[in-house]
Design brief:
about 475 residues; alpha+beta; Phosphorylase Kinase, domain 1; Transferase(Phosphotransferase), domain 1; TATA-Binding Protein; 7-stranded antiparallel β-sheet; 18 helices; binds adenosine-5'-triphosphate; binds magnesium ion; transmembrane helix
Length: about 475
């Protein structure tokens, strides 16, 4: 029987599934022209759109394209279809580093080698303005020569959307590797947060188990928050000293990257990497120039925002986003007026706490009952019996960055006309001072036309250029 071979872009023959994460499946593939083995990460657009993060993805992909380091999984190209984003990257043949740890703790020299390579990769990426924020075993891979390859650098957006406080509804994995300030959602420094995770990883390599363990998630959070852990008896004094400085719950006093690299335990047997010349150094192109043509360029410039810098105006949603929000690329929805739509969205450049108090104030004024449900969901209930019973509206807040949110109103019961009237005459005006823009007020016709050309299931090479 003939076997069905999936070929992407007439260039990549898709092979077996290598693994699966929250947002994506990763397949082995072969470049039909060069025979090179690659890994292709297939990201479900729908899942990303639900968390409203297209702009960051675009920015982060553009940063990734400029990052080249022997210990970072290289990004070759990005393609997209109507429903999927395909990220073609270097294939790490040796699989996950932690498959080794599962078999038992590593010898000190072996652990140190991986730790040195990890720090080298992380420090390099920090110098390029990229923070990982999701350093964990699944993202530490090995090549055929047993060298460490960090994957998912630059995709911190995906990491962020998973582990936040519930404004986003995607599930959060165990926080074992996440720095306390990230858990507490204080504005944090990406550098210091990554150093913490590197410390947890070093501990695990040497111990064979996690430093912060508890069957109860809350207890585990508490231990992380206090930096409460014990060293196994076989940890040497010098590595204990280093780990104590890394696993300091206060990011301000936590050791810096420079100091880690100066540490005597760290430096033992260190092989200096040859300097790598990157696109950034040779061509002096800004990450956003590089993203040009990959997706549309954001309007405000910055390549990748650390949450500390996110006070600045976030990117406005562009045509790509609006289309993406409209179901199934049905462009007609964009030109309808709001009247027949059940869902109405706006973006706000205010923190969630302000949006919530504004919603409460509005409900008070309009005599609507408001009840908080799980995550960022609020149930609004009309007090009057309408034509089809009392009006019920879901208001849901999605975080895009800590300072930028998307709020969606959706009628769940009651009369549509009454709902539309309430929205138009009462809700919209009441929210004026927190609204950045209502979703349908930002169409850019030329971009719409361009985006609309994407055919169903046709895989477009958004960036067909190989990055050398
Ligand atoms: P998440 O991204 O949801 O936090 P994750 O990192 O496990 O979790 P993916 O990045 O989607 O999810 O990767 C899934 C799995 O695929 C990884 O755990 C890894 O085993 C494998 N994998 C990812 N990238 C590569 C690669 N470049 N080469 C080989 N295997 C890979
Ligand atoms: Mg990963």
């Amino acid at each position: 029987m003939e076997q069905k071979v999936r070929v992407l872009m007439q260039r990549y023959e898709l092979g077996r599934l290598l693994g699966q994460g929250t947002f994506a499946k990763v397949y082995h593939a072969r470049n039909l022209l060069t025979g090179m083995n690659v890994a292709i990460k297939v990201v479900d657009k729908e899942k990303i759109l639900k968390v409203g993060m297209i702009d960051q993805i675009k920015r982060e992909i553009s940063v990734m394209r400029l990052v080249k380091h022997p210990n970072v999984v290289e990004l070759f190209e990005v393609m997209a279809s109507k429903t999927k984003i395909y990220i073609v990257m270097e294939y790490a043949k040796g699989g996950e580093l932690f498959n080794k740890v599962v078999k038992g703790k590593l010898k000190e020299d072996a652990a140190r080698k991986y730790f040195q390579q990890l720090i080298s990769a992380v420090d390099y990426c920090h110098s390029r303005g990229a923070y990982h924020r999701d350093l964990k075993p699944e993202n530490l891979l090995l090549d055929e020569n047993d060298n460490l390859k960090v994957s998912d650098f630059g995709f911190s957006v995906l990491a962020e959307s998973k582990c936040e406080d519930g404004l986003l509804y995607t599930t959060c994995g165990t926080p074992s590797y996440v720095a306390p300030e990230v858990i507490k959602r204080r504005g944090y420094d990406g550098t210091k947060a990554d150093i913490w995770s590197c410390g947890v990883i070093l501990y695990v390599l040497l111990a064979g188990y996690l430093p912060f363990r508890d069957a109860n998630l809350m207890q585990m959070y508490k231990k992380i928050g206090k930096g409460e852990f014990k060293f196994p008896r076989w940890f040497a004094p010098d590595v204990r000293r280093l780990l104590s400085k890394i696993l300091d719950p206060n990011p301000k006093t936590r050791i810096s990257m420079v100091k880690v690299m100066e540490n005597s335990w760290f430096k033992r047997g260190l092989v200096k990497e040859k300097p790598v010349i990157t696109n950034m150094e040779t061509k002096q192109i800004s990450p956003l120039d590089a993203a040009d043509g990959v997706f549309e360029v954001c309007e405000n410039g910055d390549p990748i925002a650390d949450s500390k810098q996110e006070q600045t105006k976030p990117c406005k949603l562009n045509a790509f986003d609006i289309i993406s929000f409209s179901t199934g690329f049905d462009l007609s929805g964009l030109f309808d007026d709001d009247v027949h739509k059940k869902e109405v969205r706006f973006t706000s450049n205010k923190p969630a706490s302000i949006i919530i108090s504004k919603l409460e104030e509005m409900c008070n004024q309009l005599r609507l009952k408001i009840k908080k449900k799980e995550g960022g969901l609020f149930k609004l209930e009309g007090s009057n019996e309408g034509r089809k019973g009392a009006l019920g509206i879901d208001a849901e807040i999605f975080e895009i960055t800590p300072q930028f949110h998307l709020v969606e109103f959706k009628k769940c019961h009651g009369d549509t006309m009454e709902y539309q009237k309430l929205l138009k005459e009462d809700i919209r005006p009441a929210l004026n001072d927190i609204v950045w823009t209502w979703q349908r007020e930002q169409q850019q016709p030329q971009q719409l036309q361009h985006e609309g050309e994407v055919q169903e299931e046709q895989i477009e090479a958004i960036s067909s250029q190989q990055i050398s």
